[in-house]
Amino acid sequence: EEEEEEEEQDAMEAQSSIETHFKFYPSLDLTLHPDGACLDDGNEPGEYALNADEFLFDSREECCAAWFLDADLCLAATGHGTGALLPTSSPTVEDVTPWPTWSDDVFDDDDDDD
Predict the structure, then answer these.
(1) Is the pTM of the predicted complex or chain greater than 0.90?
(2) What is the spatial distance between Cα 110 and Cα 73, in angstroms, rounded to a whole number?
(3) For the range 52-57, what are the long-range contacts, defined as Cβ-Cβ under 8 Å and sequence gap of 24 or more?
(4) How many Å apart are CA 28 and CA 78, to the nearest integer?
(5) What angle do CA 25, 29, 30 make, to 5 degrees?
(6) pLDDT in tens, the chain (114 residues)
């Protein structure tokens, strides 16, 4: 009977570890992660499952390399290897704008010789 209880407990622990393993997915929430982040919290959008090869990854490294220009910043932003988010500062009023922001050279017109 004791052996049977141990087997049942082992089976429950194995099931628990399976249920808590989530795939890594790119978080496109630039308010929380301005440098990009790959999360494994199980909260990925349902649409990601429709194209899992593009959006769901076995490791944070694969996800960051596939989705963000600077994978090191992505890894740092997501607590590399921990599965936990690092605290971020809240944006201030000056940091938030409802309008796109571009550098001044976007509007330079080199053809204007007046």
Answers:
(1) no
(2) 35
(3) 52/23, 55/25, 55/26, 56/23, 56/24, 56/25, 57/23, 57/24, 57/25
(4) 13
(5) 125
(6) 677 767 766 655 554 444 457 999 999 898 998 989 999 999 999 999 999 999 999 999 999 999 999 999 999 986 544 444 444 455 555 555 555 555 555 455 555 555
